[in-house]
Amino acid sequence: MTSLEPELDAAVRRQEADVRGIPASALLAEASRPQAVIVALHGGATTSAYFDHPGHPRLSLLRTAAAAGFTVLALDRPGYGGSAGYEDRLRTPEQRTDFAYEAVEALLDGRERGVGTFLWAHSAGCELTVRMASDPRGARLLGVELAGMGRVHHPNALHAMEEWRRDPARPRPSLRRTLWDPPHAYPPDVHGGRRIGAASPAYEGSREGWQEEFARLAARVPVPVHITLGEYEQVWANGPDGLADVASMFTGSPRVVLHEQAGGGHNTSVGRTALAYHLHVLAFVEECALGVRALPTEKGGQDG
């Protein structure tokens, strides 16, 4: 067992706060004297439980990061958790960005935050993270992690989407395979996401124009960026070319670090290699907290 094991049982608590009449909910794991705060933003069709899968503490970002001295707030994104049912007040990207920032402030009110806040996102959660980081308020962030996000879809994903367009009423096993293959990348009771699934808000069904907006917003992100794709990623173009394509959009970032997670599928935080993935990105979070500058081999848009 590693020295982290005793702390992996650290308390993870459910938190709620009121944000202008909308309930904001999250999972929270606190370090006693945090180096920084990590705000984790889950992907589609799940909740904050993605970062603390039931019955698998070793896979938990919240428990691992708390053991390493970081407080983690895994926020239920707008339209999920406590804010489900309030989509009529969260229709626009601007409303959702404001809600997320205000929810973080409310949920962390009175708590130690160390040297600042780092955003850690997966899949559809990367959209909100890029919006938050490109907002003027984003200049105060330590950095961001974007996992399972791209600009060009993997051929398997394109095939699954075409099947769905032909007959939306039919079951979509090819889409499930795209999200969760290969099975050996996940513990058997995790594969498929049965224990962490949730209904998606209506706004997530409409992403027309997002790829163009993604490039525009990414260029405005002024903080260090870490990008991860799993070895077996099948939603987005993977490998070095897929990573480089995403990185090319962050022209305003002082540091862009790319990582291909060995043994990982699309859902990197609940796979068998989740601990390895979390430790890798936590090293980047620590470097951001320390103000480490980009290496010559890392892409940097500024000489800061």
What does this structure look like?
With 304 residues, the protein is α/β, with parallel strands linked by helices. Helix content is 29%, strand content 16%. The protein is built from eight helices and eight strands; from the N terminus they run E-E-E-H-E-H-E-H-E-H-H-H-E-H-E-H. The protein has helices at residues 61-67, 93-107, 125-134, 155-166, 173-180, 210-218, 239-247, 274-290, and strands spanning 13-19, 22-29, 37-41, 71-75, 117-122, 143-147, 225-230, 256-261. The protein has an eight-stranded mixed β-sheet, with helices on both faces. Strand 7 (225-230), helix 7 and strand 8 form a beta-alpha-beta unit. Helix 4 (155-166) runs antiparallel to helix 5 (173-180). The N and C termini lie far apart (40 Å). The relative contact order is 0.15.
Which secondary structure elements does this structure contain, and how are they paired or packed?
Blueprint: E1 13-19, E2 22-29, E3 37-41, H1 61-67, E4 71-75, H2 93-107, E5 117-122, H3 125-134, E6 143-147, H4 155-166, H5 173-180, H6 210-218, E7 225-230, H7 239-247, E8 256-261, H8 274-290
Parallel strand pairs: 3-4, 3-5, 5-6, 6-7, 7-8
Antiparallel strand pairs: 1-2, 2-4
